[in-house]
Amino acid sequence: MISILIPVFNNNITDLVHDLYKQIEVIPIRTEIIIVDDASEGDDLENSKLSELKNVKYERLIKNIGRSKIRNYLASLANFDYLLFIDCDAKVINNKFIKNYADCIKKNREVVCGGLVYENKKPQNHKLYFRWYYGINREYRTIDKRIKEPFKSFSSFNFLIKKNVFQQIRFDEEILNYGHEDTLLGLELQKQITEIYHIDNPLLHDGLEDAGQFISKTNQSVKNLKYLVKNYPKLQSLTDTIKLIKYVQFIKRIKLAWLFRLFYSLANKVFIKNLLSKHPSLYIFDFYKICYYFSL
Fold it and tell me: Does residue 175 register a pLDDT over 80?
């Protein structure tokens, strides 16, 4: 009844899959795990061995197809009525993780978000600190907050969805790289259904990038956002969902885009120096993203 779908890129997921497998062995519902590697760099020997487990399928693509398209492809391979999407940098921290989703299926929930958490202690490697600091302050949301803002709190990191609902929306394949593919899916869900059900069933975000990598991914996310501002048919929906667009639209109205382009050209190195430091500022990060947007 549940197809667990895991897109992989440059991650060893053996612990994740074995932890999931232990749980599905004791749950009396039909379950499969489907893994597709999106042309990772290097050897995939450990991940490929996972196909030796019963009802676990593994495939490695020759060419990278991107974050959205690989998730749609995984859904096309699924045999069951419910799809459980899990990111490859997740870690199981609850021995009732699968059972909690199975209980939602019994209640005929269409879309269920389990949430994500971060380690309570900061990482010892200071290069990972900024990604962790951003995660616990901006990405983590309590169950109460997620319930209050169900669509704004949607995340594709760990969610269950009925296959027939997913087939009506799917991930936008114009979004090839990191950034806002789950925002668009959340907006499409809001058009199609009346409820996203949030439960306290998180996975640990276990794949922290160093600050330089995270800034690079953020730049790609801002590029995606600029593309969406130009091309998404309902701009107001994006504006209501993403604060950065609200700031951008205001700056455009008061005709100060030139000033932020100037800030970027003059202070970009100063911004980056702070973000790579041991004491990064999220306010500087927000300002950096606005300046970068207008520099594009």
Answer: no
